[in-house]
Design brief:
With 213 residues, the protein is an all-beta fold. Helices cover 0% and strands 43% of the residues. The strands form 6 sheets. The chain has a 4-stranded antiparallel β-sheet, with no helix packed on it. The radius of gyration is 19 Å and the shape is globular.
Length: 213
């Protein structure tokens, strides 16, 4: 309530949270991770590690299920990740590299490498999200002075890419201009809504990607 601005008010946790769960992760040598970001679905918790390392998969009770791919430069390996999506229905996990790759990596739930999902251009800090209809939504930093052709895209389960051709002028970042921030910009995306919502550090706005349109 705007009338409460500037006044002290006690806000109960129950006003924000209906339920919560404390998960104790398995802690054997293979399961240990250096936390960067959790990806939580109905039945799984995936851990993207800080500073690189393999993507770790646990169930919702904290039992370690295995690595999804591994850090490295070989087939199905990666040096650094920036985003992930778990498709429980089809039994697939998608991982997106930090930058300079024109594909997503695809695995099954046991960590077996299934191949690349080609996007068609090098991606710059891509964020991906599994949508309720089974499609993937993707967004990335758009550099107008490089070979970027899309700011967002939809990828169907068959790997077909439909790019969004509209890039708002104020979100077209200069890669080579030191005053623009370039690659230092980030994309904030939490994957906690049915549609893909995200924000760029270049702007103070939260955006929603309408993949059907």
């Amino acid at each position: 309530d705007f009338d409460q601005v500037g006044k002290e008010r006690t806000i109960l946790l129950s006003e924000w949270v209906d339920d919560f769960q404390i998960v104790r992760f398995e802690d054997n040598d293979d399961a240990i991770f250096k936390m960067w970001w959790p990806h939580i679905t109905d039945n799984y918790i995936g851990i993207r590690q800080h500073g690189g390392g393999a993507f770790k998969l646990f169930n919702r009770q904290g039992k370690y299920l295995g690595n999804i791919g591994n850090a490295g430069g070989g087939p199905g390996e990666y040096k650094s990740l920036y985003s992930e999506a778990i498709d429980e229905k089809n039994g697939w996990i998608y991982l997106a590299s930090f930058a300079w790759k024109e594909y997503l990596l695809k695995y099954d739930m046991k960590g077996k490498y299934l191949g690349k999902v080609q996007v068609g251009e090098n991606l710059n800090k891509p964020k991906i999200q599994l949508l309720p209809d089974g499609n993937l939504a993707l967004t990335q930093l758009y550099f107008h002075d490089s070979k970027s052709t899309m700011m967002a895209a939809t990828i169907n389960p068959q790997g077909e890419v439909t790019p969004c051709p509209d890039v708002p002028q104020h979100l077209q970042i200069a890669l080579k201009n030191e005053h623009s921030g370039g690659f230092n910009h980030e994309i904030w995306h939490y994957g906690n809504t049915d549609e893909m919502k995200f924000a760029y550090t270049v702007s103070d706005t939260v955006y929603a990607y309408d993949h059907k349109a």
